[in-house]
Amino acid sequence: MIAKKIKVLCVDDSALMRDLLTEIINAQPDMHVVATASDPLIARDLIKRHDPDVLTLDINMPRMDGLVFLTHLMRLRPMPVLMVSSLTRKNSKTSLKALELGAVDVIAKSGLGIRDNRMHDDSLIVDKIRAAAQSKPCRLGAAPRHALAALTSSSYPQASKRFVMIGASTGGTEAIRHVLEPLPENAPGIVIAQHMPSGFTRSFAERLDRSCRIKVSEATHGEPILPGHAYVAPGGIHLKVAREGTRYVLKLDDGEPVNRHRPSVDVLFESAAQHLGKLAIGILLTGMGKDGAAGLGRMRQAGAMTLAQNEATCVVYGMPREAVAQGAAREVLALSEIPRRLMESAASAAEH
């Protein structure tokens, strides 16, 4: 029996980009390009004709920009969408808005290895297409107001004495937002490894900082991990935690990718198992692959509380599935349940 190929529609005003994407995708045994479009209005008709499984969508295009088109698309015909963006400050913010609107992931054109009018690294785009094809496109929206009201500092007076490690990949930007937004000002220090291109993480942290009560920033080497703060691993760099005297600090490392990722969730979690032990809470969220599963298991062995997002609320149930299969997660929870459980676990652990 021949497996069904993933049908891809590529929307980009650059003829070169359309040709490169077509060449790479059609070279894969499990996917093919059913059509290409130079602008969203053409794409609209092609979607009706070909019913693609995955759409790659540029941001800056004639007649209608990618964000406006995505807004209409997710309202009328939700489907897995990969944003393909030039790496500029403006575009990184627009790409994050696209993720909020329901895009599965974002790809930086600068990260595709395009040289001499050829794409020299096809693994990134094809991996993301495979993840998108397995995803459940949805718009999570804002965190529930009752959750924001319920998680108050006074309810968890000792919670700030613990540390939280969060790992995520595909679908993770919105999942992380839903974990952080309900947290009170005295939340534990939080360290985040999200698979994201270099150049997008600063805008991601700034966006979270505007919507959260805790302070969110891109991590810098050597800074202490403080309560009420969250630190996002810079794109393309591993993030670790370490102990210096009586302080716990962040360490940046440009070592080789682990599980094909840098930052790697396993690198973060393994450093937490080594240096934090029972002081840590590990949380593995939506994402394709297995990064973070082994590290979460090491955290559990070291005495940490370990949580994994459940299948029903994951955009892609890959990384959490692997962690559950390995017995790494003490509890498996819906995304909406994680903020409260995080605070309860931090407060109860501090009392013992």
TrEMBL record:
Molecular function terms from GO: phosphorelay response regulator activity; protein-glutamate methylesterase activity; protein-glutamine glutaminase activity
Catalysed reactions listed for this entry: L-glutaminyl-[protein] + H2O = L-glutamyl-[protein] + NH4(+); [protein]-L-glutamate 5-O-methyl ester + H2O = L-glutamyl-[protein] + methanol + H(+)
Matches recorded under SMART domains: REC (SM00448)
Residues in CheB-type methylesterase domain copies: 157-349
Main location: cytoplasm
Pfam families, sorted: CheB_methylest, Response_reg
Modified residues (4-aspartylphosphate): D58
Subcellular locations according to the entry: Cytoplasm
Record keywords, A-Z: Chemotaxis, Cytoplasm, Hydrolase, Phosphoprotein
Gene Ontology process terms (BP): chemotaxis
EC numbers: 3.1.1.61, 3.5.1.44
Cellular component GO terms held in the UniProt record: cytoplasm
Active site: residue positions: S169, H195, D291
Annotated Response regulatory domain residues: 7-124
Modifications made to the protein after synthesis: Phosphorylated by CheA. Phosphorylation of the N-terminal regulatory domain activates the methylesterase activity.
SUPFAM superfamilies hit by this protein: CheY-like, Methylesterase CheB, C-terminal domain
PROSITE patterns xrefs: CHEB, RESPONSE_REGULATORY
Function field: Involved in chemotaxis. Part of a chemotaxis signal transduction system that modulates chemotaxis in response to various stimuli. Catalyzes the demethylation of specific methylglutamate residues introduced into the chemoreceptors (methyl-accepting chemotaxis proteins or MCP) by CheR. Also mediates the irreversible deamidation of specific glutamine residues to glutamic acid.
Domain notes: Contains a C-terminal catalytic domain, and an N-terminal region which modulates catalytic activity.
PANTHER family linked: PROTEIN-GLUTAMATE METHYLESTERASE/PROTEIN-GLUTAMINE GLUTAMINASE, PROTEIN-GLUTAMATE METHYLESTERASE_PROTEIN-GLUTAMINE GLUTAMINASE
Family to which the UniProt record says this protein belongs: Belongs to the CheB family.
Protein name, as recorded: Protein-glutamate methylesterase/protein-glutamine glutaminase
